[in-house]
Write the structure tokens for this entry.
Amino acid sequence: MTVAVIILAVMAAVAIPHFMPAEESELDLATLEYANAFRFARSEAMRLGEPRGVHPQPAQKRVRVFRPDTGVSPWTPVYDVYHPVSKKLYDLQLDAHPFANADSVSLTPVFRGTCDQAEMIYFDPGGVPRCIDPETVLLDSLTLTVTLGGVSRVVLLNGISGQVSLQ
């Protein structure tokens, strides 16, 4: 009898969804959108064998995916990369997003040298993140913090592996 009650209690705990306040769901989605932009740019660079970049604009709560114009120096971003699902230009603006929200976004990139445009990261064909100007400078790490209502979530970009993780 006791075993049956325990089994039913465990099943009920698993079956009952864990509800979080709408604000936390909005924050989680906003953070995931930023992480997905980095992941998409990296995977496209590796798939196509051509650099692809991410341009987070924290003050505007915006992130865009771009293709660097490598025919000019310094490289300049060309914003003609399309989102794989919406088929629109990859340009996430949190203020226009129906389900994601943030009060603020901050960006802290650390490079292994001097980067003149630290807010623009590109991935080489091997998936390694770098500075767009000069394009030879490697990214050591990047921390993007998304905050809403006193709660923060973090996107981490590893400069060695290019791996994106959430905290």
Summary: The longest helix spans residues 22-48.
